[in-house]
Amino acid sequence: MLSDEDKQPYVAEGVQPGDTVRITFPGATSMNSAQVVQPNGMITLPLGGSMEVRGKTTGQIEKALVDLYGPQLVIKEVTVGLESSGFPVLVSGAVIKPGRVQSTRSMTVLEAIVEAGGFAEGRADMKHVRIVRLDKDGTTRTIVVDLKSALSGKASEAVFVRPSDVINVPERFSFY
């Protein structure tokens, strides 16, 4: 079942998995790095260990790094910048190139399928496309959308992808 949130473009709050953050230590350039935020929201720290950054602003990450490394730094300053943002979506089933699609902007389910090469002609059941979505409370739900109507020019509501969505285009059954 579609919620109002499913029909709205995705807007990230803070740093999210898939984003790339650049960490700069002006007084210790050997510690500088660019990190891709892992699916669990963590980055690897320059001197070992890891830190959760999901949902934090770059300013909050800077403060946490200064607090952590302050005693070891000559210049007690760290700069964190967002180099790129995006999130992966998996597209499977009757599409030309199943696999991971990297969303770098708000994207609909249909756009994600097009990024995966489009529907496999003659095999795709476009009326029963399934989206498996992880909700904020940690539960998963399945949304079924009819993309055949949208492609045939009928009015339909766009469904926007969210981080970690798995889109499955089922195959039509053919009886010979």
Question: Tags for this entry?
Answer:
wza like fold; alpha+beta; 3 helices; 176 residues; 2 domains; 3-stranded antiparallel sheet; Outer membrane lipoprotein wza fold like; 5-stranded mixed sheet
Question: What would you say this structure looks like, in words?
Answer:
With 176 residues, this protein is an alpha+beta fold. The chain has 2 domains: 65 residues, wza like domain (wza like fold, 2-Layer Sandwich), CATH 3.30.1950.10; 84 residues, Outer membrane lipoprotein wza domain like (Outer membrane lipoprotein wza fold like, Roll). 14% of the residues lie in helices and 28% in strands. The chain has 3 helices and 10 strands. It has a 5-stranded mixed β-sheet with strand order 7-6-10-8-9, with helices on one face. A 3-stranded antiparallel β-sheet has the order 2-1-5, covered by helices on one side. A hairpin with a 5-residue loop joins strand 3 and strand 4. The model has no long low-confidence stretch (mean pLDDT 88).
